[in-house]
Amino acid sequence: MAGRPRFLCGVVEGFYGRPWSMEQRKLLFQWLKRRGLNCYMYAPKDELKHRLLWREPYTEHEAVCMWSLIEAARKQGVEFVFAISAGQDMVFSSAGDRLLLQQKLRQVAAMGCCSFALLFDDIDPCMCQADREVFPSLAQAHASVANEVYQELGQPPVFLFCPTEYCSSLCSPSPSQSCYLQTIGQELLPGISVIWTGPKVVSQELSAALLEEVEGVLRRRPVIWDNLYANDYDCRRVFLGPYMGRAPGLMPRLQGLLLNPNCELQANFIPIHTLGTWFQSELGSCANPDRAGMEMVAALGDSRGPREGSYSPQEALELALRDWVAEINQQALEPGGWTPGHPSVGLKGRSRLQSGTAGGQEVVPDPKQHDSVPSGVDQHGPEPCGVAPGEGCRKVTSEPEKGSGSRTPNGSQQSPTGDGDQLATGSRECCEPSASLPSVAESAQSAGIPMATKTLLSPGHTMSSSNEANTSQNLLLPTSDARTGSGSPAQSLSSTQPEAIRADMPQTPPGTGAGASPGPPALLTDEITASSGPLAPVTPEEVTSSPTAAVTPETGSGPMVPLTPKEARTSPTSQMTSEEARTSPMALVTPEEAGSIPTALTIPEESGSNPAALLTPEEAGSSPTAPLTLEEVRMLVELFYLPYHHGALAQELLEHFRWLRANSLSVGVPATAPDACGGARWRGRAQSFQLLCAETCRLHSRFASAASRALLYDLHPYLWDIRNMLLAASAFVLWLDGHLLCDPGPKGTWGNCFGWCQSITAPILLGRDAEPWACRGGLFGELQALLPVGNSCDLFYHPPPLFPSSQTYLLRPLLPLDKGELYRMCRESLDCDPKVAEILMAHPDLLGDRLLGPFLSLSPEYTFVLEDEGGLCGYAAGALHAEGFLQQQDSSWLPAIRHKYPPDLGTGGPALGQDALEEAVLFFHAEPRAVPLPVLRRFPSLVQLGTAPRVLDVGASRSLALCLLSALRANGSRGVFCQVRDADGQQLSFYSKLGFVALPVAWGSSPGTQLLGRLL
């Protein structure tokens, strides 16, 4: 490498969506310096004056901000590369446009910038008429502009050029035969470097052979723009895994490598950390590293990564995990890092995803806040904001355009609002400054544990569940607004973790995943029989006496029912490690075996870490705000790994769910296996799946309680999505045992046309040339596809809560003992006058019989309950064959209930809650309401949903509905309907957001009531 210019290795801010704030970039420079990286390229696609309004010069205030950013990079030893995207509307033959481009770059050069980049990616390859008259090809037009600008700037040592064909998949027919690239290689001046992304926009691997071909056609070594971690093409994916897929010894074939990371800055710690380890390894593998490289190797020290030329992604991940745990807990303990008791710590300017067209996403900005998301560092006053107008609506299209700004599909923009300190046009006003946030300290504080999270209410939402009086129209109101997050009932049991870890910790062998993690909630029932039927639940006494409380294939049967969230928090003996669930999916470990498995990660004494404040599993479990442990952070990374690879935890979840789906007939009705072996094996694996779901849901609760504010708001939407999906998937697996109909109906009927459990269950294998956006949603999307209603995308897209919360929820099928508590919930949900309360005390089952009585008596197998730490708080009830259900209700259930409640019970003067009594008595004694036959034929199933007013998490309520609809669909239903009163606006809104529409049928027998339906 002697005589070669310095190898550029760092980060390019080149994604679509809300750009990072100035203070976030300064934090990034600190990370780059810490990892020995030396370059940052400023290229945010939705910064107005970078792309859309590239001709406009920066105002005086904007110039000061840009100067401060360039100076901050210089102080950290980071090369600042200013990029501009002028190709969208530039007339290449226009002297005026060329002059404006040169003036813009000279203005930035006057601010102290010495490195530049000219980007012609994601533009129309067709030239205008004026250009066609001057240039014979687009490549010659691009080369002419680049050469002129390069010479006008005095031939700076770093000048990068991004061609329109920037990867092999965009070249026709191949890079070596591309006329465009051949012309670029011939015409471009030798001092200009060319950007390349690899074989694809998001390249899974980079090889020396491919780079040799590109070097030949370009006549120079390329600079890699690496989109491995870019996530602006999919709003449900974020990538936290190690840098991998790049063959060793690539550096001699390159002039640089710039990583285009996640849109969320806090999600990029591990990508940047492992990139630095890769860079160090590559420097060490070179025979003659340059002086700058030798200095970086010496500065990092031998303990910062693998030995020379021996880069291992797993070893690099282990190093990064330890440093990230220390960074996370340090930020959480800093003043302002996490203040759950202050409502002002809101999501400032944070966008919320809503369902959009074509199954995509729209972004709805917070109407009250417009400055930046907390970055974890100080905000020092107002800075100009400027984001492209097109950024206001992020839509994920089904087909990518040819190329994109982050070299990802065009138009999949991440966030809508201009950041509080982004560069903008002079006509735009400056945003208000963000709330003061602390800078990253040099060492972790030794005291100050974050307080427990509190539920914060959003003042600006219209569909909130409040403390207002509830009438008969809204006895149990499903929440239609997303405000609070929730977790899992399982309690923390995690490995030890030092409070602070020194930067010179040596590498350790990679772990096998989340080792010491909590098991699932224990199993409850009123009676237990040791038979070969459905899985036998475990009593609380057995849970207390058994460290694992696991059901093995020999233990019998009964529906698996987890502990309540309150019981799970106070029962540390009812837990099982995730390693047990992963390594033994068929037969779970015995208590003796479990006792021999270590539950804490051992950190060697020579590691150089500070073991003064190690957390035991009991300490982590007893304090929800205890710092996050190494194993918890590892679980987070394994859930959101890389675009082409799942982490160990995500892979286990998928494998279990696929197997359970494929073999669900072994526990169906009637049982198909002549012996109990198949059912016992299925139940053992279902138990393992329950363990993993419980651990993941618990991780959500721990993350909401202990993570720093900046990290929480960056990653919580992704973890919240997974939590909601696993709540539904876990309850659905519980329901499959003993409820799935092996033969939904006779041949030729509507019920027989659906074969969910008989369908091919192998995942769809994409070709090697497919980009990662071909498989939407990552882990979330694959779990969604495994549910019977997975094709109904509108059921799965809802905005994350505005204020994350650690509230835990449990979703499960109905148990016989739940009836009394459900009736109590119905009774307590009615805000009533004392006179009405006296009537309810005399008839405590009145409201419960009205809302749930027919379902619990005639169709209990299609009833699910939602539970929080206060008890049952929601239900979803259904009837598979509504026609027969209504006939049986009218012929047998109603006559019996009429003897229970006299017809004059609801008479009385006007009083709060009186109308609820009158409506219930009228329902019992009035003539039965006949549902039109066309409705029953098209929507054969009946559903009813409700939650207590205290449930503010729309994710939990929608997961409840999702589980019921999945159960009905699995047994053959193709459509559902419900009955809602016209005056019940909140119920109507909630059902409409689930895809229900008013059915245009006459229903004269029931005035004031609407029929809503949706297809499955």
Automatic annotation (TrEMBL):
<dbReference type="InterPro" id="IPR051822">
    <property type="entry name" value="Glycosyl_Hydrolase_84"/>
</dbReference>
<dbReference type="GO" id="GO:0102571">
    <property type="term" value="F:[protein]-3-O-(N-acetyl-D-glucosaminyl)-L-serine/L-threonine O-N-acetyl-alpha-D-glucosaminase activity"/>
</dbReference>
<keyword id="KW-0326">Glycosidase</keyword>
<dbReference type="InterPro" id="IPR016181">
    <property type="entry name" value="Acyl_CoA_acyltransferase"/>
</dbReference>
<protein>
    <recommendedName>
        <fullName>protein O-GlcNAcase</fullName>
        <ecNumber>3.2.1.169</ecNumber>
    </recommendedName>
</protein>
<keyword id="KW-0378">Hydrolase</keyword>
<dbReference type="InterPro" id="IPR011496">
    <property type="entry name" value="O-GlcNAcase_cat"/>
</dbReference>
<feature type="region of interest" description="Disordered">
    <location>
        <begin position="477"/>
        <end position="586"/>
    </location>
</feature>
<feature type="domain" description="GH84">
    <location>
        <begin position="7"/>
        <end position="283"/>
    </location>
</feature>
<dbReference type="GO" id="GO:0016231">
    <property type="term" value="F:beta-N-acetylglucosaminidase activity"/>
</dbReference>
<feature type="compositionally biased region" description="Basic and acidic residues">
    <location>
        <begin position="392"/>
        <end position="404"/>
    </location>
</feature>
<feature type="region of interest" description="Disordered">
    <location>
        <begin position="333"/>
        <end position="447"/>
    </location>
</feature>
<feature type="compositionally biased region" description="Polar residues">
    <location>
        <begin position="405"/>
        <end position="417"/>
    </location>
</feature>
<dbReference type="InterPro" id="IPR017853">
    <property type="entry name" value="GH"/>
</dbReference>
<dbReference type="Pfam" id="PF07555">
    <property type="entry name" value="NAGidase"/>
</dbReference>
<feature type="compositionally biased region" description="Polar residues">
    <location>
        <begin position="477"/>
        <end position="498"/>
    </location>
</feature>
<dbReference type="GO" id="GO:0009100">
    <property type="term" value="P:glycoprotein metabolic process"/>
</dbReference>
